[in-house]
Amino acid sequence: MFSLELDEIKNWMSENGEKPFRAAQVFEWLYIKRVTSFEDMTNLSKPLRDNLTESFEMTTLKTLIQQQSSDGTIKFLFELHDGYSIETVLMRHEYGNSVCVTTQVGCRIGCTFCASTLGGLKRNLEAGEIVAQVLKVQQALDETEERVSSVVIMGIGEPFDNYESMMSFLRTINNEKGLNIGARHITVSTSGIIPKIYKFADEKTQINFAISLHAANTELRSRLMPINRAYKLPDLMDAVKYYIDKTGRRVSFEYGLFGGVNDSVEHAEELADLVKDVKCHINLIPVNYVPERDYVRTPKEKIFEFEKALKKRGVNVTIRREQGHDIDAACGQLRAKERKEETR
After folding, report:
1. Are 100 and 65 in contact (CB under 8 A)?
2. Which of 4, 69, 247, 313 could join 272 via S-S bond, C-beta 3.0 to 4.6 A?
3. What count of other Cβ atoms lies within 10 Å of the Cβ of residue 302?
4. Was 85 annotated as part of a binding site?
């Protein structure tokens, strides 16, 4: 049921001889009252509830593991209806509660530093399975009368590889009759699937947009991110400029720092050259260690040197605050550890 957008439920109501306003009532039950059964939708007639029960299923996620960090970060490992598992993370900030959602079971992109891609791609998630992640976290927050205030699509998988489901998810959580999370409180990240960047630009949303960059030259980026062999860095930058021209919004570049690989002052200067004249922000990420990968974290003093070199060149840059360092923090790491049959 969570895969259906409000207009789709309205159409279903009309086709089944019901008034379209019943769709808004269903949305309220799902996303504001957060019921888990059609039977609980007490302002709907019994025949309508029965018809809904026969026609749709409630997407359910089973919580396999719930890890809590000393900083309040909570990582969930959820099991899907077919036995596959996904990760979702709740991060607590001064400005509110943010949820990082997953869009695929596994990932085909093959970034050489990432745990998410271990075992490759199993399948795409349905829109409702992405929505259900936010709802599960919101239900946990309901116990303390808190709410999800922002969402980032940076969990397992490449969101633009599951574009239609991702967009349906975005429209549902943004809907004022749904979870009503403002567009500017939602961030989508991609590794650089260029055709979908152009398509996303043409959507003209107010949703924040981020690119996983991690290197400022083609050779190094191809080594870190094989997708760069298909979608070259110069073409990626052209797509980014198109997005900025089309939307008037800035882009965030995610730059993970890997010790001795991409973290020198020279790399910083190369990055500054790449993004000059681009309306952007650089988010430096001290990487989490992943046992199956060979990369190590850049020492703190070198991170500050890298940041200083960018600021000296006039680049807008911040260092991402670490969260969940005392749990399986790296994306895909909990799934890889607990569900080895999925990540072989």
Report:
1. no
2. 313
3. 16
4. no
Cβ 95 vs Cβ 149: under 8 Å = yes
pLDDT digit string, tens, across residues 102-126: 999 999 999 998 888 888 999 999 9
- Which residue among 254, 280, 307, 331 is the active-site one? 331
- The Cα 229–Cα 222 span in angstroms is 6
| Sign for the pseudo-dihedral over CA of 229, 231, 232, 237 | negative
Say whether 213 counts as a known binding-site residue: yes
CATH topology (fold) of 62-343 = TIM Barrel (3.20.20)
- Whether 105 contacts 123, CB under 8 Å: yes
pTM given for the model? 0.93
Among candidate residues 61, 56, 48, the one with its CA nearest the CA of residue 17? 48
Judge whether 307 counts as a catalytic residue: no
Question: Which overall architecture, per CATH, does domain 6-55 show?
Answer: Orthogonal Bundle (1.10)
Mean pLDDT (whole number) for 140-147: 93
Q: Which of 112, 187, 122 is closest to 157 using CA atoms?
A: 122
